[in-house]
Amino acid sequence: MSTNLRRSSATTKAAVLAGLLTVAVSGTAHAKTADVTVSTPGATMGPATPFTGVSSHADCADGLISGGGADQGIGSDDMSNGNHVMGMAPSADGVTEYTDRPGIVGSDATHWLAFGGSGSRSSDSFSTTPYAMCLHSNLIRHTQVVMNKVAGPSAGLSARLVTATCPAGTALIGGGARTTPAGVGSLKPIASFPTFDDAEHHFGQIAAGDGETDPDSWTAVGGIGGGRDENNMTYAYAICSGDGISLKHVSTTVHFGEVSGPDTASSGQTVTAGCSREDGRLVSGGAAISGGNVTTTDFTKAGSGGPHLNGSFPSDATGTPAGDKSSGPAYWTAATHSGGSPAPNSYSDVWALCLGVQQGHDQ
């Protein structure tokens, strides 16, 4: 074979190989991906005085907030009855809250706020730890925050429910809840969960059940014991994908767990739910202390005034909170507490929201 023929053959093979590599790289570049990393700075101590609150934030240096949570240190004596979750919510800067006019209130949030509050008792043992779920996806490159709010609850031993719904054509990937002000010691969020803006779920009053797919809304429930205040507010936050993506590549699956209790005074309970590999990545979660049957009937408050949340956070299968920079936790845990009085017929509820992304290629 002549030198020119050998060179021609080599050139042809190189061109074919280059073409194959180009196709492979192009296909890889368009594969749909979604990964999640946890960010948490550790505990912020407080509140150390009665009828006050403390806030802390977790931040995503890379990626966007898909959800988040809080975990509280409460001590082991009777003072533990006084500490409760006051809020878990996205933020634009780690300081500012979305509390003004309801609707789409922000985009591409990278911070998560956690609030702890004290009732009539406080302790140096109290603390609040925030957890941010940082989503890295070449499909969901932008997010938006939808907020809704309602006045109350204000009457003793009552609750108020409010639901935030994602815009049409977007996917719900997380949510949160908040109550204000901190000075009303028995006011707190008692539920934060995924749901649907449809008649079957009574437009957010019935929570998404185990195995349900593609919820579009997030509900928050504010509960109150004996305290009263005309300025009480309850806020719900839905974290949604940005506009303009094809939802044929996205699906979400809810997993749910419910256990009875805590029933006796000064006691706690935990419950954990998780995502399977087939479901995709855990992107957010919810928690409640309720009167039970929250996925089949309208949400009801536990009968006494003291039941509250002490945590809603990413974890392992045993309920141990996920560590900073941990990758892809698969479980979500709810921690509840009865307060200083018996809480008969109370239930602890948890939701894990799992994001599945189709691993195909754009054509």
Describe the protein in words:
The strands form 3 sheets. Strands 1, 2, 4, 8, 16, 18 and 19 form a 7-stranded antiparallel sheet that branches. Strands 3-7-5-11-14-9-6 form a 7-stranded antiparallel sheet, with no helix packed on it. With 363 residues, the chain is mainly beta. It is 7% helix and 44% strand.
What keyword list fits this structure?
Jelly Rolls, seven-stranded antiparallel beta sheet, signal, disordered N terminus, mainly beta
* CATH architecture descriptor of the largest domain: Sandwich
CATH superfamily of the largest domain: Proprotein convertase subtilisin/kexin type 9
CA radius of gyration: 23 Å
Intertermini distance: 42 Å
Which overall shape is indicated by the principal axes computed on the Cα atoms? globular
Region (Disordered): 301-339
Keywords: Signal
Organism: Streptomyces alanosinicus
Signal peptide: 1-31
How are the SSEs placed, and which strands pair?
Elements: H1 3-29, E1 34-39, E2 44-45, E3 53-59, E4 64-73, E5 83-91, E6 103-107, E7 111-118, E8 127-137, E9 143-151, E10 159-165, E11 172-180, E12 188-195, E13 217-223, E14 233-241, E15 250-260, E16 268-274, E17 281-290, E18 308-315, E19 331-337, E20 347-357
Antiparallel strand pairs: 1-8, 2-8, 3-7, 4-8, 4-18, 5-7, 5-11, 6-9, 9-14, 10-13, 11-14, 12-13, 12-17, 15-20, 16-19, 17-20, 18-19
Region (Disordered): 301-339
Signal peptide: 1-31
Organism: Streptomyces alanosinicus
Short overview:
This protein is mainly beta and 363 residues long. It is 7% helix and 44% strand. It is globular, with a radius of gyration of 23 Å.
